[in-house]
Each structure stands twice: as structure tokens, then as C-alpha cells.
Amino acid sequence: MKLSFSAQDEQFREEVAEWLQANLTGEFEKLKYRGGPGDEHTYPEERKIWEKNLAAGGWTCVGWPKEYGGRGCSIEQQVIFFEEYARAGAPGRVGHIGEGLTGLTLIAFGTEAQKQKYLPGIVAGTELWCQGYSEPGAGSDLANVKTKARFDEARGKWLISGQKVWTSLAHESDFCFVIARTDPDSVAHKGLGFFLLKMDQPGVEVRPIEQMTGTSEFNEVFFDEAECDADDIVGEPGDGWKVAMGLLGFERGVSTLGQQMQFQNEFDAVVSLARDNGAASDPVIRQRIAHAHTELKIMRYNAMRMLSGQSGSDGGLQKEALIYKLYWASWHRSLGELAMDVMGPECEILPEGPYALSPLQSMYLFVRSDTIYGGTNQIQRNIIAERGLGMPKEPRGTL
Questions:
Q1: How far is it, in rounded angstroms, from Cα 216 to Cα 219?
Q2: Packing angle between helix 359-366 and helix 255-277, nearest 10 degrees?
Q3: What whole-number distance in Å separates Cα of residue 172 and Cα of residue 170?
Q4: Partners of 194 in beta bridges
Q5: Catalytic residue among 18, 251, 266, 337
């Protein structure tokens, strides 16, 4: 794992920093440090415009191959991009699911026709995506999905019916990738398909899920014979599990660096508050801040280590990647608790009208979900034990 950067990489850093400094002004000035988890409701339309501005400057999909509209940046340059994006306080990305998940999955598993159809809109920042994985009875257990896909020969369409839940930004998205069962008699990971589905059509209903923060990043999505073109299944019917697992490899991949961008900004806000209100003079608070800082650095180094060991274009990662979700979710939850202790009694009151939560209060409430979505901490420990350490599977008792 490389912990230093070449002269060429440092020149690239200057280019990124200069562009961000020149562009995070005027109409985009108010977007600085906004739009992350728990704050996703702020300036949604303005952040969509920012996404297009990033694209115009050539700063979307920086790690994608050049033939698909990316910059073809090395891992080192991608690290630099996310570091400078964080340092500049650039806003949370509304296109991160398309860029970090959909696009990379299509590059690895999609047909050339699918790549030509969908990748340009992601690169341009004009088409946003959401993820149709979890269901009421299939959260961490993705192989238990019940959503069905049947092919209508007369119409030449796949018809999708079922329900997805905890679908981030579904209300803002143009498309959704959906795991559905193509074989109604199949069980577990067999008989699944991976579909690319347009959201704005009859048969698709999005219902917001109001969170403790009072906002609704997550949604329920209901499909009632929603149409999907015959050539909008990635791979063959039955390949859905393979494609879905490849996508999860990308979720643990370079997109994690963008997540750490947000973590660093939140940590800096906690430190700044501790200095301003005197909490930093408390030795226990100082120790907790030092501990959080150390663990955040470890998170970065481990991310670089696992990316250095990435095995190929299919998103495969070394076993070190198995610990990442458990690590960051637990760290982020602890940061929320630290933020409230730094705020002191003021954490229980709202500062002024219209009495909206402060960014740190929103962060504290939102991070309660971190150890649940994307695989609960308990599931993550099972994955580490079984896939990483080769231990026997957890016994499954019957009632």
C-alpha cells in the first residue's frame, strides 16, 4: 500500500483544489458542507445543478475508464480527488449511487448497448439512480427477496411486482436497479435477475419514510407490473446474485473514499465546537476526540490497503474489505455520541426559529441507522467470521 504520492499526483491535487476553489462560489457557496447523511434534504435542486457543473468540469466518474466518459484516474488520484473535495467543503453528491454503483456494475457486467444507453447520463450528472435491494423480509438477507419479474412475450417486456424498502433518494431518482426473482419456484440466491428500471412510469409508487431527523432520505418503493425493457436485465435470468455481489464489492470500493470525505467534515465540526465552547478543556473529551481522530485515520489507511488489493474489474476485493462496514458504522455512531457530549445541555434544544435540527443534531440521530442499513453489525460479524475466517456458519434454530 502506497502512503505517499508522486510529483505527478501532487500536480493533479493542485488541479483539483484550484477547480474547487474557483467553482464553490456564487450560487454554490451556500452548498459548502451541506447535503450529507441526515442533511440530504438541503438544497436538493441546487445540488443537482452542482452535479452537472462537476460534469462540465470533467469531475464526475474520475476513476471510470476514459472510453466510458471517465478520467481513468489511478487509485492514488482518486484518493486525492476525494481528499480535496472534502477539504474544500464541497456538498454531498446526489449522483453517488449511479457513479459508484450502477456505472461500475454496468462496466463490469453490462452489454455494450446498456453501457451506451445508461453511462452517458451518469457521467453528465443528468440521470440519478437508486438501489432496489432491501425488502420488508429481506434486509440483511438479500437472498430472501420476494419481488418478482415475469417476461411478457406479447409486450416484449419484463414486468416487475413487489416492494422495496429503505431506498435512499428514490424520490429524487430517475432510475433504479432492482433485484427480483425471475424463477417463482427458486429459493435463496438462485433464480434472481438484476434489472434496470425507469422510475417515472405507471406501476411505480414511492412513499417517504420519515426519520427521527424529520426528513425522508429513505423510501418505500412499490412495483405493480412496472415495465422493464427486454434488454434491461444485466446478465441472464438467474445471474442476479452474481451481479448483486459484484456491485456490493464496488460499494466497499472507491466510493468509500467519498464517504470518508463526509466523516472528516463532521469530525472537524465537532473539534471546532469543542474549541469554541470550552469542551476541549475536559481531559475526557480531549481523549475521546483523539481516539476518534486516530480511528478515522485507521479507516483511511485500511481503505487504501483494501483498494490496493482490489482483484479486478468485477469489483472483487481482498478479505480486508469485510471489516469495513462494521468499522465505519460503529465509528460514525460513536462520533454522533461524542458530538452530543461536546454540545452539552444545548444538544437537547433547538437554537432558533424555524427550530430545525442543527447539522450535528441531525447527524447524531441519523447515525443510529448506520449500524442497520447495508447489513447490520451482527450480520457483518457473521460475514467476517464465515467468509473471512472460515468459521462454521451460525446455527439456525427453529421455533
A1: 7
A2: 130
A3: 5
A4: 179
A5: 251
C-alpha cell at 138: 429481506
d(CA 313, CA 292): 33
**What does the alpha-carbon distance between residue 68 and residue 105 come to, in Å, rounded to a whole number?**
13
Q: What is the pTM of this model?
A: 0.87
Rounded to the nearest 10°, the torsion over CA 347, 352, 354, 360 is: -30
Does the structure show a pLDDT above 90 at 224? yes
Q: Going by C-beta distance under 8 Å and a sequence separation of 6 or more, which residues neighbour residue 326?
A: 377, 380, 381, 384
Give CA–CA dist 49/35, Å, rounded: 13
**Alpha carbons within 13 A on the beta-carbon side of 139:** 15
The contacts found for 46-52 with CB under 8 angstroms, 24 or more apart, are: 47/91, 47/92, 47/93, 47/94, 48/94, 48/125, 48/128, 48/172, 50/90, 50/91, 51/93, 51/94, 51/95, 51/125, 52/124, 52/125, 52/126
Q: DSSP class of residue 86?
A: H
How many angstroms from the chain centroid is the CA of residue 353? 32
- What are 53-94's pLDDT values in tens digits? 999 999 999 999 999 999 999 988 998 998 899 889 999 899
Query: Domains along the chain?
Result: 7-94 (1.10.540.10), 129-238 (2.40.110.10), 252-388 (1.20.140.10)
Residue whose grid cell is 472528516: 264
Reference 37, options 177, 215, 208; nearest CA is 215
Q: What is the pLDDT of residues 252-307, one digit of tens each?
A: 666 667 678 789 889 999 999 999 999 999 999 999 999 999 999 999 888 878 77
Which positions ≥6 away from 20 have C-beta within 8 Å?
84, 85, 88, 90
The CA distance from 57 to 125, in Å, is 11
14 catalytic residue (yes or no): no
Q: Identify each DSSP E strand in 77-147 by its residue range.
A: 129-132
Residue with cell 427521527: 212
SS3 363: helix
